[in-house]
Amino acid sequence: MLGVWLGILRPNSLEAESNALTPGSVEDPVVTKSYVDEQLAKLGGGTPGGGTTPVAESALEVVTVPAGKTLMAGQGTEVIVRVGKAIAYSSDASGIADLTGGTDLTKGKAVPTNHLLLFPREGRGILPDPNQKNGLTVLVKGSYTLQ
Hints:
By secondary structure, the protein is an alpha+beta fold. It contains three helices and eleven strands, in the order H-H-H-E-E-E-E-E-E-E-E-E-E-E. The strands form two sheets. It has a six-stranded antiparallel beta sheet with strand order 1-10-3-8-5-6, with no helix packed on it. The chain has a five-stranded antiparallel beta sheet with strand order 7-4-9-2-11, with no helix packed on it. 17% of the residues are buried.
């Protein structure tokens, strides 16, 4: 009795093929690329692959921070200290996100070299350790100023 029920519930391959849509039929029409582009333009999407969306700058810039100066990072800026000892600076109680170490670097804390730092908002930066004579070499992705 079990075999009879399975045979009834399972469609055979001929039934599956007869229910498939045929390309070019009324149920599944073939359209031209120009028609699709026209419809996308009406929706405000532009043409596919047209490059209408601006791409964020993805290049890392090598920046030298001289002794006595502070690199002030813009919101969303990423920084990696490559050479020198750096100190975190923040104008408030919050700090800089050390994404590599998983910590928050508040004002006055040492910044580890080769760690990816994310500056969540304005008013934060890094400066060379006052106990060293040379400045810093850092990689920056985003906006910054030297003060």
